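[stage:ingest] chain + small molecule (F0G)
[stage:ingest] validated
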Amino acid sequence: MAVKYIPEPFRIKMVETIKILNREEREEKIKEAKYNLFNLKGEDVYIDLLTDSGTNAMSSEQWAGVMRGDEAYAGAKSYYNLIEAGKDIFGYEIIQPVHQGRAAEKVLFPLLLNKGKYAISNMFFDTTRAHVELAGARAIDCVVEEAKDPSIRAPFKGNMDVEKLEETINELGKENVGLVVMTITNNSAGGQPVSIQNMRDVAALCKKYGIPLNIDAARFSENAYFIKQREEEFKNTSIKDITKEMFSYADTFTMSAKKDAIVNMGGLIGIKDNEELYLKVKANCISFEGFTTYGGLAGRDLEALSIGLYEGQDEDFLKYRIGQLEYLAARLDEAGIAYQSPVGGHGLFVDAKALLPHIPYNEFPGQALAVELYREAGIRTCDIGSYMLGNDPDTGEQLKADFEFTRLAIPRRVYTQAHFDVMADALIAIKERASSVKGYRVVWEPPILRHFQAHLEPLK
Ligand code: F0G
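[stage:predict] done
[stage:export] tokens:
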């Protein structure tokens, strides 16, 4: 095989036992869970790829930081350590901790958006879209067209369609666009990166029309690594300098630290240099999150986060991390299994529509494959497709998604090469019996964000 697994740049100091149930037990558990993987108990899962968010393994340095955490209510040492790290990495004057990514959105977005306004992104993550809407505004995606075809191998499928962005701004009227958001990497399109050139073009448009630019920075280090690999101008630039350059184009950022900052809980807001906005952020933060110097986190969390920010930028780590995904992708290439290609930074998004062509969108191919992966090998994944999208709020009709993906999201520093082989072998085994895999129907659903709670039933 052409792609070799990159050896782990760490050794293992502590382990957590996982058990695999047998096939009959798994069949029983998934039935009890109403064929919804969110309803499974974690202990009934062998390899948990539901998300890469907050599921990372911290380092011995981070655990040492946990012991050093300063729990002072105001002005803790751990807060100042985090602020120093944030300023150093992002080059922003103002860094505000919060308890996770959606908290950053909840604090910042109502200050920039209100009823009648629009926010435009390459692609909004679901909670980000929800917070735009909770602020009274509407969210619009403007991702490049090639992102919508899993078989097109383009280097920066996460990019904003700049022409479409400008058209949209003109259609809506620049005074009605409250915010542009660049999601790096672009999670919903498959963990696909955004180029510096695209950041520059979007920043220039935002400047031209006087619209603030926010980065949704959950996977900023993975994005920087892809830039180094794929954007000629930056092939000899350090990850740290690429990161600084990326953030230099925006005015603010919101960040879930549960991804690239390799912690189990945490988030950040960054403001380049706007004291007036900071005053309002602090006021919201105190109401929703806690006093400004802890922002909803324990001192020990602040300490682990300030260390994790640097560890996530380490080039040996990133090479190994992206290497794991490339190894899995190469195994699927050999087996002729399609996925959003090239493979993304935090997960592999299997093209369930291609693997299960007999299952139409309204019988949820991405969910059917997710259930099958649990049956086959105790692997938990999730649907990123029509099942997740839900119903039209006006007509109640099932919406049809652009993609039907099953996402294998990879926690950082948790699984080894042998686990990756289990994932590939399971997908190959399912491919062999693909035509016998059945679709699903929803038998009960809550009014919003139904995929977390819905009950399903296999079709005959
Ligand atoms: N933005 C992006 C791009 C995300 O992927 C997420 C979370 C958030 C914001 C919200 O952050 O969870 O800390 O509140 N994504 C997770 C996922 C949940 O599984 O992709 P949060």
